[in-house]
TrEMBL record:
<keyword id="KW-0573">Peptidoglycan synthesis</keyword>
<feature type="domain" description="Lipid II isoglutaminyl synthase (glutamine-hydrolyzing) subunit MurT C-terminal">
    <location>
        <begin position="307"/>
        <end position="390"/>
    </location>
</feature>
<dbReference type="InterPro" id="IPR013564">
    <property type="entry name" value="MurT_C"/>
</dbReference>
<dbReference type="GO" id="GO:0008360">
    <property type="term" value="P:regulation of cell shape"/>
</dbReference>
<dbReference type="InterPro" id="IPR043703">
    <property type="entry name" value="Lipid_II_synth_MurT"/>
</dbReference>
<keyword id="KW-0067">ATP-binding</keyword>
<comment type="pathway">
    <text>Cell wall biogenesis; peptidoglycan biosynthesis.</text>
</comment>
<protein>
    <recommendedName>
        <fullName>Lipid II isoglutaminyl synthase (glutamine-hydrolyzing) subunit MurT</fullName>
        <ecNumber>6.3.5.13</ecNumber>
    </recommendedName>
</protein>
<dbReference type="GO" id="GO:0016881">
    <property type="term" value="F:acid-amino acid ligase activity"/>
</dbReference>
<dbReference type="GO" id="GO:0046872">
    <property type="term" value="F:metal ion binding"/>
</dbReference>
<dbReference type="GO" id="GO:0140282">
    <property type="term" value="F:carbon-nitrogen ligase activity on lipid II"/>
</dbReference>
<comment type="function">
    <text>The lipid II isoglutaminyl synthase complex catalyzes the formation of alpha-D-isoglutamine in the cell wall lipid II stem peptide. The MurT subunit catalyzes the ATP-dependent amidation of D-glutamate residue of lipid II, converting it to an isoglutamine residue.</text>
</comment>
<dbReference type="Pfam" id="PF08353">
    <property type="entry name" value="MurT_C"/>
</dbReference>
<dbReference type="InterPro" id="IPR013221">
    <property type="entry name" value="Mur_ligase_cen"/>
</dbReference>
<dbReference type="InterPro" id="IPR036565">
    <property type="entry name" value="Mur-like_cat_sf"/>
</dbReference>
<comment type="similarity">
    <text>Belongs to the MurCDEF family. MurT subfamily.</text>
</comment>
<keyword id="KW-0133">Cell shape</keyword>
Length: 420
């Protein structure tokens, strides 16, 4: 049952959450962002669902194995460009305590947020657990991969969780029509109206096989919102029979698919108010979500961050690296339960890794060496490795590049004093 809308009964929870947030930040500058949500969820377990149900134009949920953060950011940007006031979770806090903490940042003492709608990225597992507490006007499903194997074990389990979330869609389900598992799920179990996004057959033929993404089938050229061309950070998205050129926040077909997903969802949400030129300009203005093709300047050095979270994203991102980079650092952390998970990836394009670091540095270095990548140094001490890497002279080709999994990404940003 969907909870009653926000009201004065949530005032104690909001006050408690804000007090916890202040205490957490006093204890650790820039840290403890999820702690207020954790406390409030225990103290007032109905708060999250109640606030999610209070937006006049409803809730939009973005979920799936990969692409959630970038797709969410693009969708929010498109909607705001059309004049909508949107609440979102910009820090990519997509589990229950993170979502509650994000709501507490903006909620009034009665638990209300001054916005037309909410567009929230949700983790598959937490979203499924939270699903009885909310109804979503629209649910967007990005893809299904054997991701986070220590949590989800196999893709069928992921499909089950996404199915649970998708059943909360009251108006529209938007999904990756090239993902055979999503398409079968929607066809078999849902009466909700469908909208699809994906890639054309020509673009599909260029994708790497055998890495999870190959569980898809060639794109339907005649339906949906489709990626028709990708060249680095330049892409074309096709809808209503016309191609529209967009600039992507980072290189690669996966970012173009995120753009197609965001445009498909915005077309459904805005209806006749959707303007193609406005959407194209909005997508082209989006900057990389932190860690995902983001370029930062630290200690006077430009560094590109490349986050890899599963074999498909690893392969797609490595394939987009500039050839001949002479300063690359690779880090694998405790978020990777089984390093052999990444062995199907051909990482040979890296060429030379100046330092391999993180708690799984030895395993990552072994894979690179087997793929004939030169490894200069292995050091599990990530902060020390980062300091030495940044201190290296300017690269002869490209920019300093750090390829990392999620745990070292967070640790890297913390060590370098960057926002989380």
């Amino acid at each position: 049952m969907t909870p009653r809308p926000a009201g004065i009964r949530w005032t104690p929870a909001v006050i408690l959450g804000r007090a916890v947030r202040i205490a957490a930040r006093l204890r650790k500058k820039g840290g403890g962002s999820a702690v207020p949500g954790l406390v409030v969820n225990r103290f007032a377990p109905g708060f999250l669902g109640s606030v999610l149900s209070s937006f006049p134009e409803g809730l939009v949920v973005v979920t799936g194995s990969s692409g959630k953060s970038t797709t969410t950011k693009m969708l929010v940007t498109i909607l705001e460009a059309h004049g909508k006031r949107v609440f979102t979770n910009p820090s990519t806090a997509n589990i229950s305590q993170g979502l509650t903490s994000a709501l507490l940042e903006r909620a009034s003492l009665t638990g209300r947020i001054d916005a037309d709608m909410a567009v929230l990225e949700m983790d598959e597992g937490h979203g499924a657990l939270l699903s009885p507490q909310f109804e979503a006007r629209l649910v967007l499903l990005t893809n299904v991969m054997t991701d986070q194997i220590d949590r989800f074990h196999d893709s069928e389990k992921v499909v089950g969780m996404l199915d649970t979330i998708a059943r909360r869609a009251t108006e529209r389900l938007v999904l990756n029509g090239d993902d055979a598992m999503l398409d079968a799920m929607a066809a078999d179990t849902h009466d909700t109206a469908l909208a699809r996004f994906g890639v054309t057959a020509e673009v599909f033929d260029s994708l790497p096989r055998g890495l999870g993404y190959a569980q898809t089938t060639p794109g339907r050229d005649s339906e949906g919102t489709l990626v028709s061309r990708v060249d680095g950070r330049s892409a074309s998205i096709r809808w209503d029979g016309f191609d529209h050129d967009v600039t992507l926040p980072a290189r690669g077909v996966h970012y173009a698919v995120d753009a197609a997903a965001a445009i498909a969802a915005s077309r459904e949400l805005l209806g006749d108010a959707f303007e193609s030129t406005t959407a194209v300009d909005a997508v082209s203005s989006v900057r990389a979500v932190f860690g995902r093709g983001e370029v930062v300047t630290v200690r006077g050095k430009r560094i590109e961050f490349v986050l890899v979270q599963n074999p498909a994203s690893f392969q797609l991102n490595v394939d987009e690296l500039e050839e001949g980079l002479d300063q690359v650092m690779v880090a694998m952390g405790s978020d990777v339960a089984d390093p052999s998970y990444f062995w199907p990836v051909d990482a040979s394009r890296i060429g030379r890794a100046r330092i391999v670091s993180g708690s799984k540095a030895d395993e990552m270095a072994l894979q690179l060496l087997y793929q004939h990548v030169q490894v200069d140094e292995i050091d599990a001490d990530l902060p020390a490795a980062l300091d030495r890497f940044i201190a290296l002279p300017e690269p002869e080709t490209g920019v300093k590049t750090i390829v990392f999994t999620a745990d070292p990404m967070r640790r890297t940003r913390s060590h370098l004093g960057l926002a989380q």
